[in-house]
Amino acid sequence: MKLGLARALTGSAVCCAVLCAAALLPAEDTLPRCDLLPDWKQSGAARLYTADNLYDYMDGNSEGYLIYGFDRMRGVTCKSGEASFVIDTSEMKDPESAFGLFASNRDPRVPTEAIGVLGQVTPQRGIFAKGSRFVEISASPPSTDHSTEIRAFLKALDGRMDGTTSPPAPVGWFPTEGLDANSIRLIPQSVLGLSLLKRGYLVKYDYGRAFIVKQPSTDSAIQLMGKLRDKFGDSVEPAAIGHEGFEAADKYLGHLLFFRKGEYVAGFTNLTEDFDATKVAEEFASRIP
Q: Which of 8, 97, 135, 263 has CA 20 to 30 A from 165's CA?
């Protein structure tokens, strides 16, 4: 679209211009572009970082990306008048890792939006995940509400990126009653602070917490359950949940109920006093394939 025409567009016409421009760009072009919105231009050179040099760009925050399977980041800085947007697209090892990075970066106090798998927009920042990519925008000056332009940029980028828009399957297996949906996280290591639980999902409920961890095979899940029983020692009592289960008490995890369903180990911890988790655990187990 010619620049003169783009500058003449306002309101809803600007949204149309954004969508049309996005449609003309290659679907696999993951480098952010500043000309997705009228009157925005690139400032400075484009950026490219890998796992080996991300620290140079993000300093102490790089580890938060690397633990989720970060591959590389492409970015640009865009300007329009006094406004400046730093736009970065991180390519992760798989869609689950991209969702995990999104979940770890979102503000649980702010609603999510239907951009990619999920998106979130605040006056100074916008993020979303789609496929194996995580996109983020940081805006300045901080005295201005940039949410309208941030949202338009995110939607334009979403439109030119391939990849799944469905969240990882385990996200949909947690029982919904009492669930704090904004609390869902992919924990990249030591779920519940237990080194036995290498990587999995953790959520909060109004009566405790729930988790689910996938093992490489059913046999390894059986072995894991045995190690967990040994860890909690004399407090363990059998529970008929899934293929096997047990209840126990722990100094840090409180009253807990763990179970196995095939290659998955899941359960609840820090259950409130007198709450019977049997029914909700049975529902949880029934949702796991």
A: 263
